[in-house]
Amino acid sequence: MPSQHRWTDAQGRQTVQTIVKKLIPQWSNGLYSYQEDVILRVLDGQDVLCCLNTGGGKSAMFSVPLIVLREMTRNPHLYPRLRTRARPVGIVITPTKGLAANIVHELQKLDLPAFAYCHETITQSRKKGENLVKIIADCKTYSLICVDPEHLRDDSWRLITASDTFRANVIFGCVDEAHLINEWGAEFRPLFKHIGAFFRGRLPSTVAILALSATIQPGVETNSICRSLGFSGNNFYHLRLSNERHNLQFIIQPLDHGFSGDEFPELLEYLNQNRKTVVHCRRIEDLQRLFMYAFDSLPPGLDRLRRIKTYHSLHSFDVNTETLRLLDEDPMCQAVFATVAFTNGLNIRSIVDSLAYKFPKTLNLKLQEGGRAGRDPETRARAVTFIQPSVLSDAEKQISGRVDAPKISRKTGKPVRTKKTTPIEHSAALVLSESKCYIATINRIYQNPPLETSTLDCISAKRLLPCSLCAKRKKINIEYAPSPLPTDMTLPPFIAPATPQSAPLTPEEKKLKLTRKERDPVMLALEKFAEDVRRTEQYHPDNHHRPKSSYFPSSMREHLAGKLLALDSLFALRALLTSWNFASTYAGSLYDLVVELQATIRSDREAARVEKNAKQRATRLSKKALQDSEMSEVDDNVEESEHSDVDDDRRSSPIPPPAKRTKTGSGGVLKEVTNRTKLSSGRKESSRGKKSSKTKSQANVAKEKQTLATIAAGFGPAYRTTSDRRRARGG
Ligand SMILES: [Zn+2]
């Protein structure tokens, strides 16, 4: 039957308000007017681009139209004649299955049957012998289907969208987290770029296309998304509200340590405030290091894995879903360490702190990360980014257009080639280089209305939670309440684990320190040992969620290698590894390995010592032989000089022969004297030139001979010169 009214008319608005009040009493204040504006347009089949803050109620935009139409199907006599469908259904494109599962979970609370179309649920359905295509196309079982762009290519979706029933009942195609069309569509997941083509090509033209995001910057970014979805001119409704979060403090905290180590003391300062927290990590390796640090900071014996959890793509879908449930429902489950999968769209209402190591690639992603905290507007939340100070100065240089002069190599005098660093995204660099107010800068970038006040600093704008720059400038300290706990429950504090690396080496240990050449094979052997432990232990139920790196952590291996040669007993080894979870089982076999490595290193060192000594002895002997031959030459020269008037080239050489000492004292003196005289004669001759030195030289030689004879006479017959000895022999 043709409709009499449009939804955007007063009767449509009234109908939506009535149904929401009736079916969703938990929303005591009903819908915001901007939500109604979007919902009514979706019901009328208009396209909508909607940008508003995280936690601004975007999910109502796609859930309420379905709730309203389902109620109209159940009780048509209660409502005016408006355009409706018998079995209304909508499609939401979600970037991750985690977000899909999260939406399904949330919609269950609103009694709206939804389905996350992903690998796991498809498999489950197949095992049950269900015909999923028929179930979805019939529009009876599920009112909302969440699906990722990649699955839209499946034949199943060709069949679903070709079904007459489905085409008659589908009311919208929605893309959640629409900023990813640009961010992921470019390289990471190109099918994001094809969502618009799917909607336009496969769904009836009367179906509304809805794009939602908290982080689409005006200008180029918005235009690109509009082009991709086929929005142009006035043919779509563009809702842009401020994405500023009034209950969220934006904090950038420079680190005073590197990020490559295994210690993160600043993390514990936040965790010890006992607030529900998400710790965002860029890579799974970072996640494991951070998680292990927090894990080791909790007292053993306690169910540590209940207090802190991990959420990433290596977990099964069920494990991740369970983690999200526990975070919301178990008061003891305090923190989740998550990779990027967590940052897009998940709605965990209890989270109040969002901690992130390193700034993400784009400002959009940063706001998405931060947006996970403080979904309950009544709470005070924080979005903290721990960052290396060098990143802040890089951003500042990039924005100011300053480029450092290239470093010049001392050796070659040429500029040293440095690694080309990727430029920071412009919006991110603007924020990171900011020195007055982060929020004012972000509001300027997103053109958050009203610009007259949104671009003022936090103090002038009287923000409830000033950003870290404004708070520091004005010395404002904000108190943050812990997350609620049952009265009979207390949480033990996180205490930084003893850091083996910080204990200084004794002088004896320094002697025993391994060289790099010795250390490499040791580290390799310990790594292999760690892998053996993991292979053996990974199937134990207690270790189901244990990160790979935690079986024999690298920090422990480093520490052990540092003290390897100092370990003289199994007892000493155990003392070194008190915090190792597997010490009771593996200390014995590890000690066997230690002894073996020690023996190899000691035997190598001994062999090296013997070889070095042999080399030194050989050098000494060859030197001695050289000296002896030189000595006989000296004697011969002295002898020759008695008989020859012609100078020898060697004698005029400016380089003196080495001084020689014999073992007996007076003989040595004699020889030294001989040499000294030769040295002085040599110097004189060389300075004067050969020709003119001839007669002088002869005179000197004669003089020296006399001196030598005098000295020799003084010492007696035992210390005669060679020529004396020859003379004595009658030569
Ligand atoms: Zn500020």
TrEMBL record:
The membrane-spanning stretches of this chain are none
Region listing for Disordered, in residue ranges: 606-731
- Compositionally biased tracts (Acidic residues): 630-639
* SUPFAM superfamilies for this protein: P-loop containing nucleoside triphosphate hydrolases
Kindly name one Pfam family recorded for this protein. Answer: DEAD
* Limits of the Helicase C-terminal domain: 263-424
Recorded hits in InterPro entries, A to Z, give: DEAD/DEAH_box_helicase_dom, Helicase_ATP-bd, Helicase_C-like, P-loop_NTPase
* BP terms from Gene Ontology: double-strand break repair via homologous recombination
GO CC term, one of those recorded: nucleus
All copies of the Helicase ATP-binding domain together span 39-221
Gene Ontology terms for molecular function: 3'-5' DNA helicase activity; ATP binding; four-way junction helicase activity; hydrolase activity; nucleic acid binding
Entry EC no(s): 5.6.2.4
Q: State the similarity comment.
A: Belongs to the helicase family. RecQ subfamily.
Protein name per the record: DNA 3'-5' helicase
Q: Which organism is it from?
A: Favolaschia claudopus
What are the leading ranks of the lineage? Eukaryota, Fungi, Dikarya, Basidiomycota, Agaricomycotina
